[in-house]
Amino acid sequence: MPTAHGPLRVIVYRVVPERPATTGMPGPAEHMAIVAGEPSGEDVLARVHSECWTGEVLGSLKCDCQAQLDQAIAAITRAGRGVVVYLRQEGRGIGLGNKIRAYALQNGGADTVEANVQLGFAADLRSYELAAAILADLGVRSVALMTNNPEKLADLESAGVRVARRVPHWVAESEHNRGYLEVKRAKLGHRE
């Protein structure tokens, strides 16, 4: 498919849950691999990115998700080889409806982590077994992982992904996302 970043291939993975989801994300989900070049092999430039409908569709400035996705796709196309695994795990796994509720709590003074907890969820409910399966399906044996999140890196390794190296993935800070990024550093351990 031609894109603003260059030609990309999109491979859709449809997952039908065995039982109803408890995370606010019912029914089958379609995840995807956004691929530049031939991604199989070692040290493949990769990002595992979770859906952010509010940022990626509506252009919300509260987060850095759209900029991170754009930067990752630009990076794999520049490299001529790589993959962005796009997982339907809205709101760190709590689903779109709960994410909107979390936004309302944030408007009342809670930060992103506090809002999830006030709704009865952990700070982050995402899982990465599916990302590991997608990378394996593509023949990826190790990744150069674009992330700032050490927990994501550890969870991917626990799921069987060999991380050859971490590639810092910061994007520009603004007045609207500054607090969000500070919470990611302070409470979620994100690093440069």
CATH superfamily: GTP cyclohydrolase II
Strand content: 15-25%
Architecture in CATH? Answer: 3-Layer(aba) Sandwich
N/C terminus separation: 32 Å
Shape field: globular
Number of structural domains = 1
The CATH topology label is: Rossmann fold
Characteristics of this structure?
two-stranded antiparallel sheet, alpha/beta, single chain, 6-stranded mixed beta sheet, Rossmann fold, 192 residues, globular
Short description, anyone?
By secondary structure, the protein is an alpha/beta fold.
Write up what this structure looks like.
The chain is an alpha/beta fold and 192 residues long. The chain has one domain: GTP cyclohydrolase II (Rossmann fold, 3-Layer(aba) Sandwich). The protein contains eight helices and eight strands, in the order βββββααβααααβαβα. The strands form two sheets. A six-stranded mixed sheet has the order 3-4-6-5-7-8, with helices on both faces. A two-stranded antiparallel sheet has the order 1-2. α4 crosses α5 (112-118). The longest helix has 15 residues, at 65-79.
Sequence-ordered SSE layout with sheet pairings:
Blueprint: E1 2-3, E2 6-7, E3 9-15, E4 29-36, E5 44-50, H1 53-56, H2 65-79, E6 82-87, H3 90-93, H4 96-107, H5 112-118, H6 129-137, E7 143-146, H7 150-158, E8 163-167, H8 178-186
Parallel strand pairs: 5-6, 5-7, 7-8
Antiparallel strand pairs: 1-2, 3-4, 4-6
Helix pairs in contact: 4-5
